[in-house]
Amino acid sequence: MAPRKIIIDTDPGQDDAVAILLALASPEDLDVLGITAVAGNVPLDLTSKNARIVCELAGKVDVPVFAGCDRPLGRELVTAEHVHGKSGLDGPDLPDPEMPLQDGHAVDWIIDTVRREPAGSVTLCPLGPLTNIASALQKAPDIAERVAQIVLMGGAYFEVGNITPAAEFNIYVDPQAADIVFKSGIDIVVMPLDVTHKALVTQARNDAFRALGNAAGIAVAQMTDFFERFDKAKYGSAGAPLHDPCVTAYLIRPDLFTGRHINVEIETTSELTLGMTVADWWGVTDRPANAFFVGDLDADGFFTLLTERLARL
Ligand code: BDR
Ligand code: CA
């Protein structure tokens, strides 16, 4: 089968970086048409720089990287330096990128690419706030029926919230954008905290990354060393959760994940629960299913896949 064409929309972020590395290490499965940066974990100037640092770490300097929206659709940007550090990629000491940012706005490039490629052939992979994707859908509603699928990291049901008691970070930063995406009618797969909090980098898994001995393996071990302090302190968990790599792993090995087709709505007005993903996991409403909401994964299978693929870089 031909590799699946994907656009990675991202706000790197250590876990975004690992997701990108997994995709770039898997050319037989995934054809990364380009990477679009959005403001999220850190401001846009850093996320668009970090995306290129990661491409260079993977040795894939030909992947086009575009800068997109520098703020959410209707509110001020909220960032997460308290999790990811000042650079967004704290941990390893990686050089500034030499590859340039592409000319043009990420939103226009997403629209042009989805229109140019055969209908139903491009999958969007958002790993950050949904501002770029929603902006593309607003500007060019015709692309909705051409997108094959959206596989995104965001939201939570059982785990509820990580940035507020009710909301997960990516959805909270731009709830208006998330609402547009979830109402788009596009086939959506969601990797919420419910599954990503089960993809934990234990010490043994971190040791396995480091033991690869290549630049990517060592950098991933250093990134998760840095990133884990936040979750260990907050949740008492065994290590760093690899949120965003669940998206790229799902594209390669969907059999590692289980979930339910359910209705998911986004809270866009309440001050108390802004950005909450109201997920009808138990089917208590008649609202139609609009997403495949993942709840569990084969964590050992996931880390075996990730480690094997990182070894290739
Ligand atoms: C999400 O927020 C970011 O901090 C991570 O990169 C991930 O995309 C987890 O809530
Ligand atoms: Ca992210």
Structure description:
37% of the residues lie in helices and 18% in strands. With 313 residues, the chain is α/β, with parallel strands linked by helices. It has one domain: Inosine-uridine Nucleoside N-ribohydrolase, Chain A. The strands form three sheets. The protein has an eight-stranded mixed beta sheet, with helices on both faces. The protein has a two-stranded antiparallel ribbon with strand order 7-8. The chain is globular, with a radius of gyration of 18 Å. Calcium ion binds at residues 11, 13, 16, 41, 127-128, 244.
**How does the overall form come out from the CA principal axes?**
globular
Would you state the CATH class?
Answer: Alpha Beta
Q: How much of the sequence is in beta strands?
A: 15-25%
Radius of gyration: 18 Å
The small molecules bound here are: beta-D-ribofuranose, calcium ion
Number of strands: 12
User: Helical region count?
Assistant: 12
**Class of secondary structure makeup:** alpha/beta
**Unreliable stretches covering 5 or more consecutive residues:** none
How far apart lie the N and C ends? 23 Å
